[in-house]
Structures are given as C-alpha cells and as structure tokens.
Design a protein that fits this description.
Layout (H helix, E strand, L loop, with lengths): L5 E2 L5 E2 L2 E4 L3 H12 L4 E5 L19 E4 L1 H9 L3 H5 L4 E2 L2 E6 L5 E5 H4 L6 E4 H12 L5 E5 L3 E6 L4 E5 L4 E4 L1 E4 L6 H5 L4 E17 L6 E7 L2 E7 L5 E9 H9 L2 H11 L7 E3 L4 E10 L3 E2 L2 E3 L5 E2 L7 H21 L7 H30 L3 H15 L2 H11 L3
Parallel strand pairs: 2-13, 3-4, 3-14, 4-10, 7-16, 14-22
Antiparallel strand pairs: 1-2, 5-9, 6-9, 7-8, 11-12, 12-13, 15-18, 15-19, 15-20, 16-17, 17-18, 20-23, 21-22
Helix pairs in contact: 1-5, 1-9, 9-10
Length: about 400
C-alpha cells in the first residue's frame, strides 16, 4: 500500500482515499486510515488555516458536542483522548429531564447506573486540534485547503477527481464527510429524504448563579427543547435551545439581558439566574437521510449520510461510528486483497450503518413529536411516562446504555 503521493501518467496526484471534508468526522476517518497505512488526501474548504498543532492556546468554541463512551473509546484507540480530556472538559454525572407543563420528570445518575459519568461535553475546537495534531505525525496524509472539487469520473480501477483549480486527484475511493449539503452526495446523484422540523437551534455559553454540580438539564414544552450542558467551570454551561422557527427568530432579536431573563424563566430558575456570556448563534433543524450511503467508488459518512435532531446529542457520535466501521471494513478488504472501492466492499459498510442510523432517526422523530405535541391527553401521557421511567431502575438503565453508545 502506498504511503506517498505519486504523479500518475495523466499528472494526477494519486492516493488510496480522498476525504472531502476536514471536520471532526472527516479527520477521525483520516486518522483511522493513516494508522492503517493508507495514503489519504483531505479536502477542506471551510477552514483556510488549521489550528497550529503546537499551540497551547485553543480558541474557545460555542459549538460543543456530547461524547458517548463509545466515541471516547474510539478516541482512546487513536491515542488522542488524553489530549482532549486535558482541555476544558465538562462532565455529566447526572441528567434531569422534565416537562414544564405538567412537571413529569426523570433523573438519571451515573452513580445509580454504576458508570463513571453519563457523557462528557467538549468544544469542537478541542477535538479538531487533537485530530490535526495527531495527523501531523503521518506523512501518508495530506490536506488541501480552500480548493473545492469540481467533478469526478470513474475509470477502470479508480476515481479521477478534478478540483476547481484544474488539479486532478486519483484514488480508489472518495468519501463524503462534507456535511448536510454534501457535494459528494449531490454530484453522485444520491437522493436524500428530508423533512424540516420547523425549528431552529440557538447556541450560546451562559453563566449560572448556582453551581451546576456536573448535572445536565433538559426541559421540554410544546414550543421545543432546552438543554443546559455543564462545562468545566462549575458556573458555566452551554445551551442548545431548539424552538419553533418564529419563536426562535424573536428570541434572537432580544437583548442579552432580555434573553437571559427568558432563559431563566424557561428552566424555572433551576440554577438561579442565568446570564448569557457569549454571542448567540442559530441554525435551522432538519432531518435528512440519504437513500444510499454508497455510490460507484463513493461512500457517505456522518452528516453527508444522515442528520438528526440534536435533542439527544447523538448526531456526531453516529458519524464517528460511521468512520470507525468504514475504516474497519476497508482494512478487512485490503487484507483479503480486494479493491476498497468495489461495490461489494462498500455494501458491507451500508448494511452495517444505515439501519442503525435509521433507528436513531425514528427515535429522535418520536421524541420530538411526542414532547412538542399540544394535545392535553398526550401531554398527560408524556408526563406519566417520564414519572414511570423514573420509578423503574431497569428502564432508566436501558436509556442510559443507549445514551452511552453501548
């Protein structure tokens, strides 16, 4: 297997795998493949300059992710977990979920579940820095910034991709890790089923009057879901407030003070007065699922294949698992001297991941619909259901195991 880049007869730059998208999932896949001795070219158009791998100061990031134990185990296997865990790591030892309208609630505890925690909260910039630093040690990985793909075509035994500067790349496989508006998916004519949640998510960093005690809070009502996620500082949290689009736009127009007051009221002052400490960002929420995860010498990973509601924090974790499964299948194929771009190899990846992700999409849809429906009867059942789950240890354990990615 080649670990350097070669100019082919038509002056194309050759590698084993092209990864379109250098976000968290794309870089994770690149590191998995690099450690398996594949040559990889990463194309990243959103980031023009990476964080310096030697930098000790990583810019703070409003965008945070809740990592499951399964993802942490993956990062441990890649030898980057210590780097991530040493920087601004928030820990969820408890999670409280409740419905504001009728006060049904459930409380999940790591101690009760005999787990070290129920998840950790990490800024995206911290994960990106750890991955970028790790990849510096692999000469078989090259990153090209700010030069998008323009087209590709399939030859006898490889894919030939042309970039917008007319450079040509040659590879056995092209992987789309390029998000919900995936260029790879669109150019490959892979259809996607999409539905709007008619909601937007508001993200910000806040300060609480009382310490969060490593507890995450999630409150539902008919207009949406508000999550408070504990960060490393005992009085600092990240919010993800998913609300109906019209209401969300109104909330974004409020002053910082007025927004803080509304926020405090929404969670019934569970941590005392809440104060917004950062700018607020928003993004529309939608559900997407590609009808196929593969094309001819093409595979889709992460948001390019599936986008779900953020209420359970599972989206990026599904993407990390996609990357791990795809890398493992490619390694197995190579050991058997099979072409990693062949259809029968890629179909193994699709069979392994598509049904699993479809199940999570259905579950998130059910949660979203169930908790935002205005029917009084459904509201009563919903609250009784929360109380019922809270009173049955085995059922709480089931949900905890799912949340941990087990």
């Amino acid at each position: 297997m080649s670990i350097c880049y070669l100019k082919t007869a038509n002056n194309a730059l050759h590698c084993d795998v092209i990864i379109n998208g250098g976000g968290m999932v794309g870089l994770t896949l690149a590191l998995l493949l690099a450690q398996a001795d594949y040559s990889v070219i990463i194309l990243e158009t959103n980031i023009k300059t990476p964080i310096a791998p030697t930098s000790t100061e990583i810019p703070s990031d409003l965008r945070v992710v809740a990592l499951t134990q399964a993802t942490r185990q993956l990062f441990e296997s890649l030898d980057i977990w210590q780097s991530i865990a040493s920087k601004r790591l928030g820990t969820m030892e408890n999670i409280k979920v409740w419905d504001q309208a009728l006060s049904g609630s459930v409380f999940f505890s790591a101690l009760e579940a005999k787990e070290p925690d129920l998840g950790v909260i990490v800024e995206q910039s911290v994960i990106l820095h750890a991955l970028q630093a790790a990849l510096q040690h692999y000469p078989n990985v090259q990153t090209i910034y700010d030069t998008p793909l323009q087209a590709y075509q399939i030859s006898a035994d490889r894919l030939m991709a042309t970039m917008q500067n007319n450079s040509i790349l040659s590879a056995k496989l092209l992987v789309g890790c390029d998000g919900g508006q995936s260029w790879v998916r669109n150019f490959s004519a892979i259809a996607v089923k999409e539905r709007s949640y008619d909601q937007l998510a508001i993200v910000a960093t806040i300060q609480s009057e009382r310490p969060h005690l490593n507890t995450a809070y999630q409150r539902f009502n008919a207009t949406g879901v508000l999550a408070l996620l504990p960060l490393s500082d005992p009085f600092t949290l990240s919010i993800v407030w998913s609300v109906e689009t019209t209401l969300g736009q109104s909330l974004m127009m409020l002053s910082q003070e007025a927004f803080s007051q509304q926020l405090t009221q929404e969670v019934e002052a569970v941590l005392g007065t809440l104060t917004v400490m950062s700018k607020r960002i928003q993004f529309p929420l939608r559900e997407q699922h590609a009808t196929s995860y593969i094309g001819e010498r093409v595979a889709l990973v992460g948001d390019a294949a599936h986008v779900i509601h953020p209420l359970a924090g599972q989206g990026v974790n599904l993407g990390f698992l996609d990357a791990a499964v795809l890398a493992d299948i490619l390694v197995q194929a190579t050991k058997k001297h099979r072409d990693i771009g062949y259809d029968y190899v890629l179909k193994r990846y699709q069979r392994s991941r598509r049904m699993h992700n479809q199940g999570m999409i259905y579950l998130m849809r059910a949660f979203k619909e169930g908790f935002t429906h205005t029917s009084p009867l459904l509201g009563l059942l919903r609250n009784k259901g929360l109380d019922w789950v809270d009173s049955h240890a085995w059922l709480k354990q089931f949900f905890i195991q799912k949340a941990l990615g087990k």
